[in-house]
Amino acid sequence: MAKSNVQKVKVVDNEIKEKLVSLNRVAKVTKGGRTFSFAAVVVVGDGNGMVGQGLGKARDVTEAITKGIADAKKNMIKVPVHKGTIPHEQKGKFGAGRVLIRPAADGTGVIAGGAMRAVLEIAGIHNVLAKSMGSSNPHNVVKATLDALTKLRSPLDVARQRNITIERVFNG
Question: What is the mean pLDDT of residues 83-87?
């Protein structure tokens, strides 16, 4: 299996943005009736290549979101962003969720659906084409998107690995 370039990085709280991807009400049936609780999928990031995903569960909505944010801050990764887009095309998968992300020209914007859009915007990627294939479950789509983003290699990493200059990476 290939070596992963995942870097977990600690970030100062004052610059982090949060986005609620999905909130799900779950019912547990007991002999006393139904007991409701909430599951919140949250994405956090600094808008400059740092992004994380978290799941929070609690009986109260705000508590579930707070737990999700805390979980997401623990699971942050660094994403290589090159001129507002990603360095190369990449596929990602998690469970039945499959995603494809492609770099796009300047001015294209984030062309992505629901859960993927949240992850890409929070990561600070401004121009990208993305396709969600397979499951539309927000949890699986978010994790598949993060899988694709962790597989990305920066142009500097590629140049070092091939023992060439960065200019040769782009010009062939």
Answer: 89
